[in-house]
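Fold this sequence, please.
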Amino acid sequence: MDNTISATLSRQSGLMAQMQVVANNIANANTTGYRAEGVVFSEYIRALGPDEPSLSMAAARVRMTDLAQGSLGATGGTFDLAIEGDGFFLVAAPDGQRLTRAGSFTPNENGDLVTAQGWPVLDAGGTPVFVPVGAGAVAIAPDGTISADGQPVGQIGLVMPVDPAGMLRSEGVTFRADGGWETAGGARIMQGYLEESNVDPVLEITRMIEVQRAYEMGQNFLDREDQRIRDAIQTLGR
């Protein structure tokens, strides 16, 4: 394949990946605790031969998560929790422990505090958080301490990944932190609030238009290049 076409196709592939990410951000603009995502482009260079120039192609293989704070919306719910500052809730997904900023929790029939998916919410040590069944007034302090009728009964864990840039998006609004995590310092829990998505819809729509135009320009170039090759073949074949 012609090197010019190869380089352009690599760019088109990256733009398609970026468009998928932008569309997913827009679709989750109202999802509690959602973190916007972006694509990082890099240059891939390959040597073609000792007497030939190298071939430079675009690669869009890295996704970056925007960790900026989302707006906090008051709900008044006892177990609606938002994090102010840098940190994550620790939850037990079926395939391992995960981090999330989505704090819409509720006690199940056994008194375990769980997410909307039914996953247990954990303390900083990885133990499920328990709220006594039939407990009276429940208060949750900024440090995550849960009190029922004025008596402490547990503490919700607030953690921070050791390598925030190395987090991998998992199911829904949860993340894997294969590099481990530590107790979050400086963050505090707000009871009766939920953190909204940090997606800026106007910015994402602008990005979508820019990506679409860039893709169309690349497609027009490929069409012209294809026609040029066809014309050359027809001329040589006469």
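The mean pLDDT is 88. The first strand starts at residue 37 and ends at 46.
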